Amino acid sequence: MKTLHISVSNKVAEYRERDGFIVCGNSNYQVEFAFDSEWDEHEEKTARFVWNKQYFDQEFTGNVCPCPIVKNATEVSVGVYAGNLETTTGANIPCRPSILCDETIPHPESGQNYSNEAKQAAEEAKAAAEEAKAHADGIASTEARISKAEKRITNLEKGITPDPFVTDDTVAYEKIAPDNALPYAAVERLGGMSSVIDGILHHAPVTAIRTKGANLCDAGTLSFTGTKLYTLKQTFPAGRYAISADWVSGSSDDSVAVNIQYTDGTYFGLLKLARTYTERTFTATKPFNAVFFYSAGGGVSPSKGVSCTIYDIMLYASESDETDKKPYQPYFDAIVALPEHITSQRGYGLGISEDCHNYFDLDGSRYIQMCDERDYEEGDEDNPDVVTDGTKTVYALATPIEYDIAPIDNYIRVDGGGTLTFVNEHEMSVPSVITYLIKEVTA
């Protein structure tokens, strides 16, 4: 077994060049990683091998990982990821083609020159390469998908076991994950939609998916005079949090104080709003279950309370380890951009209805084109099966066209109660299928 060495320091993976190159088509390579202390807590890891715009994920424990059979490549990039979430750069290993890489047919007399052992080895190499390609193309059974999800979830939340899948197939611009969902969701399907806005035909090609942590305060907007005590939907433990709010009242020198109320009835002051959007992180030293507001005319006291409206009240568990009153940092807020081989597909973002739209089947690595765009034709405005603005028309294809696409990792982090937003220019609702695993806390 040939061993290739990769060192990992500060999340940067580097290949030891003196180990040479990989000869494609061989099955006797392994990678030995030398991790820095940052990886000590991760016993289970996944190595990703990338070549020719495809990847192969190999789960392993310890420091040694077997290599997949690489075919027809000049270079393979190798990196590692684990947990929630740590990952490395790719270390580039040069490759050379083997005699088995060429797509050739056997000479009629070639069988006479083959030993049984060589012939069997060649057949096994070909079968292994096809198996690797099938894996890289995302062709896996439902059982394999569930097993992979369960392993990832087990690493994230000890003491929590997966229960049935819950699927959300509504047409929406933003979706809210179930409160009891585990922190990874699978984007099974993502489509487009077309609509006439202000007399112009627009489409909704999703360029990215934004995920955001759960807002622990579901008050939204509150209008009151003087004081307002808002009871939260549950009691939250001591810890780090972040809060933000905006407000409007009748006078420029009015102000609003925002506090949390501990379960023992005491208060902790958080924000002073002065007709502006304000945000901060804070440490709750005791459990709390309510937010208390009071509006002060001239900033004097609650006894001179004024009428006001508080907008966009957001309360998050926070990942920030900064001291109080440092810049706001919500628990999780990230934008996952879709790769170009997704967004560049013909007709991407077009759709006529919930039942007729172009979409990606990300589990099956397919793009399905059900409609296309053409110039307006007389009578389009009376046709319920098209969308038109009198200049351009989106119409249904007689026969949908199916394209294979390079696979992508369609798991995305979203916390229970958090949001998934399908970013597109006009904030249009789009069809999508999102699958969540619901957690069950075990005793």
Could you characterize the architecture of this molecule?
- By secondary structure, the chain is mainly beta.
- It has helices spanning 116-136, 142-156, 340-343, and strands at residues 2-9, 12-15, 22-23, 29-35, 44-51, 54-61, 64-66, 75-82, 86-87, 91-96, 160-168, 171-172, 174-176, 181-191, 194-197, 200-203, 208-212, 222-225, 227-236, 239-249, 255-262, 267-273, 278-284, 288-296, 307-317, 333-337, 351-353, 356-357, 359-361, 366-375, 387-388, 392-404, 411-413, 419-423, 430-441.
- Strands 11, 12, 14, 29, 30, 31, 32, 33 and 35 form a nine-stranded antiparallel beta sheet that branches.
- The longest helix has 21 residues, at 116-136.
- It is flat.
- It has three helices and 35 strands.
- It has three domains: 2-136; 157-212 and 336-441, no CATH class; 222-330, Jelly Rolls (Sandwich).
